[in-house]
Fold this sequence. Notes:
- The complex is a heterodimer of chains A (121) and B (500).
- With 121 residues, chain A is of the alpha/beta class.
- Chain A is built from five helices and five strands.
- The relative contact order of chain B is 0.06.
Amino acid sequence: xxxxxxxxxxxxxxxxxxxxxxxxxxxxxxxxxxxxxxxxxxxxxxxxxxxxxxxxxxxxxxxxxxxxxxxxxxxxxxxxxxxxxxxxxxxxxxxxxxxxxxxxxxxxxxxxxxxxxxxxx
Amino acid sequence: xxxxxxxxxxxxxxxxxxxxxxxxxxxxxxxxxxxxxxxxxxxxxxxxxxxxxxxxxxxxxxxxxxxxxxxxxxxxxxxxxxxxxxxxxxxxxxxxxxxxxxxxxxxxxxxxxxxxxxxxxxxxxxxxxxxxxxxxxxxxxxxxxxxxxxxxxxxxxxxxxxxxxxxxxxxxxxxxxxxxxxxxxxxxxxxxxxxxxxxxxxxxxxxxxxxxxxxxxxxxxxxxxxxxxxxxxxxxxxxxxxxxxxxxxxxxxxxxxxxxxxxxxxxxxxxxxxxxxxxxxxxxxxxxxxxxxxxxxxxxxxxxxxxxxxxxxxxxxxxxxxxxxxxxxxxxxxxxxxxxxxxxxxxxxxxxxxxxxxxxxxxxxxxxxxxxxxxxxxxxxxxxxxxxxxxxxxxxxxxxxxxxxxxxxxxxxxxxxxxxxxxxxxxxxxxxxxxxxxxxxxxxxxxxxxxxxxxxxxxxxxxxxxxxxxxxxxxxxxxxxxxxxxxxxxxxxxxxxxxx
Lengths: 121, 500
């Protein structure tokens, strides 16, 4: 079975490492983007199966990045998971409005992270 | 609330103008019937307003930081009193016999001097920081007593009216002097106009102007019953109407606008600070949480042995580290919640859920704590669906049950729920250390700690405070009963239908 590709868009190095480590151990292929623009470039360069989008990023936040990715034909229905802070209702709504498929609140619980991600695939 | 008041002021202006016009016409007609009646009514109007200003100012003297108002209030008490005597002293009243028209005219002059000088002094009192009210009261009592003695007892007060020739030069010149003093008070008032609410200032200015006109009208009259006298009184009535608007109407309907802008300003400043506090806490908590994400995340991964095997000691120490990190996170989240509640930003996320599920979750996550202490832990919540904020509901119960377990050394902790009058009542009963009656009120305040709590059990002091606020957010409340050394019962009551 072909390995699923997951794109991780997050400006925080440690958070990227954390998520990539967990995903890597589970057998996923991980693509990294350190900001919104890199994330959009990455989606153009290859087809990914799921995107984990950090919401709070400088210059272009997760919402804007998601909106732009959604405009690409190939990504109309790819699951995009927003990583929000402390699951504020407003963050949740903003994420959904921008086109995210779901959300997870930071800090992520390592025990349940993988099973949550698998639900979206 | 502001919206309501704005719509009131949009009422057509011709209505009060019409009423006022009719009343003045009515008063004029009474003067044709009986001048004495007209005079009495006209004076009664201004006396009532004078006393109302006093009543308002006196009652607010400790609440409002407003020297101008309080000073004027005291002044008008005495001015009103003198005006009463003036009204009663009119020849036709038959109270002060043997004085004819000189007495009321003298009293009138005394009252107007007092009024104009008070208005002038009031402008300068504005600049002072603290005003000794008793001092001022005594000052007025002393002054008015002296004046009355000079009129009635010593009889040294200059004549103001002589039968046959009319007003004395003293009286006429006094009216001009009074007008000058009033003009001066107007000048100094306008010099300090930034200290006043714009509308209030307008009323005050108009009032003083009309008083000046009224005084000038009184320089003309020949007889105490003539036309000039009538006009003077009418202007006095209208000028008092404007003082009524400036002080009483504003004081009752828009107290924060009352004369002093600094009250408004301190309100605005308070709101600004509160806002800054909320923004600060919100951004700080985000900053604080970021490194915690790493700590919790990586420690969690290592504990799950995904990054390699652990020996028992490593596992033990990492678990303690992980636990501390989680604790720290919950403190930060609590702090953020509280600041959001206080600034009114927290909104409940309403959904339908079953409380039995929450009960099971709480029981499962806290059972080990009870077992560690050898306590009996019963968590029996029935199958009831409610519409509320699931996460906050869980948060509240978690806090209450956690507290119960924390502060109980032996016995049991019992959690039940019942339906009652459209509400759900969740009862958390423990046989713990309890709370003394005198400390009950401290319980729900932030950062209050009680000395007799079990040593080693430390809280932030925020838990119950936050819980109480969350309960209110869900349109519910927390009740508690406790007996020192016997136990406590916390009851969380909330409506089954949040929207209902």
